[in-house]
Amino acid sequence: MIFATRALLPQGWAENVRITMAEGHISAITVGAKAEAGDVRVSALLPALANLHSHAFQRAMAGMTEHRIAGRDSFWTWRDLMYRFLDRLTPEQMEAIAALVFMEMQEAGYASVGEFHYVHHQPGGAVYANIAELSARIFAAAELTGIGLTHLPVLYTYGGAGEQPLAAGQLRFGNDVDRFAKLVEAVRLAARALPGDTQVGIAPHSLRATNPKDLLQAVPLAAGAPVHIHVAEQPKEVADILAWLGARPVEWLLANTPIGADWCAIHATHMTEAETAGLARSGAVAGLCPITEANLGDGPFNGPGWLAAGGAFGIGSDSNVRISLTEELRTLEYSQRLRDISRNVMVSGEGSVGAAIYLGAANGGAQALGRKSGAIAVGMLADLTAIDLSNPALCALRNDQILDGLAFAASDAVVTDLWSAGRHQVRGGRHIARDHIVAGWRVAAQGLADAL
Ligand SMILES: [Zn+2]
């Protein structure tokens, strides 16, 4: 059980809160309680966020793509290095890298992750003996770390808009819809061995990596679980889709697919006002990845237009160049301030920006991952994060300023404890398997760096 000096409940901050958990869920909440022997005592308890978008393996490229070469720097040259990297990545390395990534997410305050998983095959494109070999590696990393996993096998059939063939660097991703269906079936079977909060959705990679007929054929494979898709991340992608399909990507999705509350549109950066309002009203979650979008030079999301239309959003760490929940929150808001030459943008009406972003992302992230979480309430998954209010960044703040302190003044070091569906994986700011996981990562990361 957990005893929190303060806890953020749906109705606001409460004092001396005792949380009882059963089978991964919150089974009772007592306010004004006394701590009992054996309780885990924490300073302040928050609903933990879901990290709704990750490509775990890309963590091992962090710091390798920040070197300028005259005339050659863009999103697309970054992608070239990613492809060279994938020529060498082994299943063992995939597992070790994902374990570090999931551990770092939990230490930063994320209880769950949406792993948008697109590397399926061997270098050159041959299928592994187990078609779901690399998904099994992600599952092993999730089991080791205890993170809540929404696994999203990716449909990736074409190398570019207009059904271009896969390039050499993309052969490990490739499946037609029939083989993708077999893959999803194998992944679902393997997922049965994981904890009950595990989900398997699907992710058509993007419009450019599929085609209209295949996309519509693949969507029912989600069977009610989440559907994620990259959309409108880069102006070139928007122009390519417009030239091919006669509509901009979001415009096309709204007109031709059943996009709705079970969908997550990753990035959704370059949209017209009509697309912004239409996508928000569809109920789909905008999957925002502020650090990666800044790192790749994607551009800022239209936050004011999205909020005005009542859109849901969540936060993802995408390329994992830096895994930090507090930095994601402030990068999202700062991207809006820099563009608008304004302050306090990501909030509807008046109120705390930190609370609007944090609680917005808690709800939207849970929705995007098909996860019953995002609030400390009976019946919800026990996805909980504890922060230390005696930390210098937070110690002088009133209750209504705590989430602003977290978003703008604190580092992730304020996180002391983290529960993923009741699994107490971070204690005293450290993941319980940290040393073992870091040792595995060192071998994998060095092996990959040496092979490049
Ligand atoms: Zn992505």
Descriptive report:
The chain has 14 helices and 17 strands. With 452 residues, the chain is α/β, with parallel strands linked by helices. It has helices at 75-86, 91-108, 133-145, 177-191, 212-218, 235-245, 249-256, 273-282, 290-295, 303-308, 325-340, 353-368, 402-408, 434-451, and strands at 2-9, 12-22, 25-31, 40-47, 49-54, 110-117, 148-155, 199-200, 203-204, 227-231, 263-267, 285-288, 312-315, 384-387, 415-420, 423-427, 430-431. The chain has an eight-stranded mixed sheet with strand order 3-2-1-4-14-15-16-17, with helices on one face. Strands 5, 6, 7, 8 and 9 form a five-stranded parallel sheet that branches. The chain is 36% helix and 21% strand. The chain binds zinc ion. Zinc ion binds at residues 53, 55, 116, 230, 266, 318. The site of zinc ion (ZN) has 6 residues, from loops.
- Report, as a whole number of angstroms, the end-to-end distance: 48 Å
Report the uncertain regions.
Answer: none
Output the structural class: alpha/beta
Shape: globular
What's the tally of helices? 14
Q: What proportion strand?
A: 15-25%
Q: Reading side by side through the largest sheet, how are the strands ordered?
A: 3-2-1-4-14-15-16-17
Helix content: 25-40%
Write down how many β-strands occur, each being a DSSP E stretch of 2 or more residues.
17
Give the biggest beta sheet.
8 strands, mixed
Bound molecules: zinc ion
Average the pLDDT over all residues and give the rounded result.
96
What Rg, in angstroms, do the CA atoms define? Answer: 21 Å
